Amino acid sequence: MAAPQAIVIGCSAGGLTALEQLLAGLDPALPQAIAVCCHTGSANVDLMCELLAKYATLPVEEARERAPMRGGVIHVAPSGYHLLVETSRRFALSVDQRVSFARPSIDVLFESAAEAWREALVGVVLTGANSDGARGLLKVRQGGGVAIVQDPADAESPTMPTVALELAGADHCLPLADIAPLLNRLCLP
Amino acid sequence: MNSPAGKAKAPDTSLEDIEVELFVRALKLRHGYDFSQYAPASLKRRVLQLAHAQDTGNVSELTTRLLHEPGFLSVALEGLSVPVSEMFRDPDVFLALREQVFPVLASYPQINIWQAGCAHGQEVYSLAILLEEAGLYERTQIYATDFNEAALQQAREGIYPAREAQLWSRNYLAAGGRHTLADYYSARYEFIKLDQRLNRHVIFANHNLVTDEVFCEAHLVLCRNVLIYFSDPLQDRTLALFRDSLVRGGFLCLGTRESLDFAPSASDFAPVDAARRIYRLGSRSAGRD
Ligand SMILES: C[S@@+](CC[C@H](N)C(=O)[O-])C[C@H]1O[C@@H](n2cnc3c(N)ncnc32)[C@H](O)[C@@H]1O
């Protein structure tokens, strides 16, 4: 099986704290391109990037329209826009209707990323109080990618991981503390 | 290693992608609407949503209806167009327009503004209000265009769900509004209706950025969150259209997350307020005098 080339991460309620822990645990040598969609991120994406950069071991930037999804960088979806990945692996934004009350929507990011990266993608669903992300994770798995879900029992808000597990299942379901080490194992050459 | 000569390699394109491509071709061949230069990922999403909303089993059925059913074109266009907007969306942009652009506009005896992709008109009314408060509206002509006829009709009426009013009022104040937004609308039941006096210098017209040409000489072009739906070449063509529509020194305002990094025509514009995506047509441009 080919090594993953990209990671997409989705979270909602409780997500910022979870992200801090997850991003702090990533090996700084990870070559994968990483994109994050967090509903409860600040309306000011600069601020959110700054906050996450305090913890992250890799550079954090806003995902910019038309820019390529770059390896070794954590790209954060701006608030108010859906973030999509084109098959050219460049980012695209849209202000289409909200999906499950959310814009950016995790489903939109995951579904488009699944088409762009197919089996070279890892999708991660973390804590959240809604059902966004489940359909996206299903698409990741159908494309041959790897699905990771935070153990609902360990999540600040268990709904999102639970719905994702019900609809898509997962290759790995584990507590937050174990997710970064797993990603490092899966993703380092 | 190589597959034997004559044996076709399985194509990489998924069935869904083939169907979407055929749908887009049908739309162009049958009706002249060309979506082939739209950013693929979000276009595909909207086509699939349309199929879902129309309860057709697949996109091919949409194509059949498009070809054979008179009247289905408008349904399809509605589905593919994204008339999602807000009054004073990104209030700091409207504040910047008021503080940095209006003083220059004030030097013209007659002000022409083109708002391209006006959706349901929220931004047109926002502009009209700010121009009125700046004392400029009497000599302004706003051309508000979109290619979605149903959206234009709603824009003309200026009726919106009342639940939006709270956010819009906050936006209005953050944009430097001098009164309260409620001074500009009447509330009835679940709806608000914008004061139709705000329409007195607005022409709502159908204009397709893919196929239609320059139609006015503008001092300000406002086109926010439309170019994000276009591929690089179409974005570039559209920017050239704006350049050719603007007077020398005219202003262009785009959406705050739109990037010009991939458009050669962007070099005709110099940033006035880069973070708010406000540009000015530079003197080295090929635009008309
Ligand atoms: C997301 S809305 C933007 C509304 C508003 N400018 C804003 O930012 O709030 C995009 C609008 O662009 C219009 N549009 C898309 N393609 C177009 C085209 N080729 N010509 C004219 N309008 C187009 C759509 O119909 C839709 O109303």
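Chain B has two domains: 15-80, 91-281.
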